[in-house]
Design goal:
Blueprint (H helix, E strand, L loop, with lengths): L2 H14 L2 H9 L7 H13 L2 E5 L6 H12 L3 E5 L6 H5 E6 L4 E6 L6 E5 L6 H13 L1 E4 L2 E4 L5 E6 L12 H4 L2 E6 L5 H11 L13 H13 L4 H15 L7 H4 L2 E3 L3 H17 L7 H12 L4 E2 L1 H5 L4 H11 L5
Parallel strand pairs: 1-8, 1-9, 2-5, 5-8
Antiparallel strand pairs: 3-4, 6-7, 10-11
Helix pairs in contact: 3-4, 3-12, 9-12, 10-12, 12-13, 13-15
């Protein structure tokens, strides 16, 4: 791409992404801090990537998702996952109509734009399998008929890292379907004071819609236009390859700590998320810093560590940090 074309593309992306600041302003009326979570959700909406949020209760995960939905006029459904949940509670079922004598589909809450799967690991395997079809195929099957889901369609799942009793750990195949796994942490002291002042009264701020669903879909197509240099593409591939064959990248020390590295879906997610990260900053091109900024979210749930790593209390974030430090950055 020529310098002239890149300048024009950069100007176009800067113009197209102006709504981001307005959205952030509306969301910040009720959500204090949590920038990584908010930006992660927005990147998911722009790319169609599903997101897993992990954090203890009370960290505004549901509030943030609902606020993002309101700022874009998207339909939003919250589903509390429990051990007695059935697939039909999620996708719907066939209902007999005595007047016509026929069965008609009764669509479930998954037919919406944003699905909040609250405490997803509390649901049994059959429910998770039904959700997996929706995430992977953007469709569900009721009876003998498949139905397309809304566009955009995004699954935002939460899980509590503390309570593991009575849970059903997500299978690796489903974990890989999530573009991001974002660790939601406690606010700092200054943010906690803002939360107290803003939310410690009966009257809560109202969020206004700043863009339409059609505007969001158009923005998603603009994200695809963000330029990625071949050197940056190679850097993305090198990072993922280093999770599979660390000894070839001078990372022999961690070779025995990784049981399973990132899949090709990790490479694609890293690539697409980097474009969305650049778009959020009004840039028409991806830099190495974009890759590094979203590498932890993209890879932490895809790396399966060995028992040796667990015994040494080594986390996936530690491995990713080592890889980012060691893989050569393109000039």
């Amino acid at each position: 791409m020529s310098d002239v074309d890149l300048l024009a593309l950069n100007a176009a992306i800067k113009q197209e992404s102006q709504f981001i600041d307005r959205m952030m302003g509306e969301i910040s009326k009720v959500v204090v801090g949590q920038k990584e979570m908010v930006e992660g959700i927005m990147m998911g909406l722009l790319t169609g990537g599903h997101i897993l949020l992990e954090g203890v209760p009370g960290l505004a995960k549901t509030l943030t998702i609902a606020s993002v939905s309101k700022s874009i006029s998207l339909d939003f459904q919250r589903i509390q996952f429990t051990p007695d949940l059935l697939p039909t509670d999620l996708i719907g079922t066939m209902i007999f109509n005595p007047k016509s004598g026929d069965f008609a589909p009764r669509k479930g809450p998954i037919f919406t734009n944003i699905v909040l799967a609250d405490e997803i690991n509390r649901a049994p395997a059959k429910v998770q399998s039904a959700l997996l079809e929706a995430m992977a195929e953007k469709q569900v099957t009721i009876g003998e008929t498949s139905y397309r889901l809304e566009n955009p369609f995004l699954v935002l799942a939460t899980q509590n890292p503390l309570e593991q009793e009575g849970t059903y750990p997500l299978p690796e195949a489903q974990m890989d379907r999530f573009m991001f796994k974002i660790n939601v942490t406690y606010p700092v002291k200054s943010e906690e004071l803002q939360i107290l002042e803003r939310m410690g009264k009966n009257e809560k701020p109202e969020i206004q819609s700043v863009i339409t669903k059609e505007d969001l879909l158009r923005a998603g197509s603009r994200v695809d236009m963000v330029y990625v240099d071949n050197k940056v593409k190679n850097y993305v591939v090198e990072i993922v390859m280093a999770t599979r064959k660390p000894e070839e990248y001078g990372l022999g020390r961690i070779a025995g700590l990784i049981q399973v590295g990132g899949s090709p879906r990790a490479t694609i997610s890293l690539f697409r998320a980097a474009k969305a990260h650049a778009f959020l900053r009004g840039r028409g091109y991806v830099t190495v810093e974009d890759i590094k900024a979203i590498a932890f979210h993209t890879l932490r749930h895809r790396l399966i560590l060995t028992y040796e790593a667990e015994a040494e209390n080594i986390r996936t974030d530690d491995i990713i940090k080592e890889i980012l430090y060691s893989v050569e950055v393109p000039a």
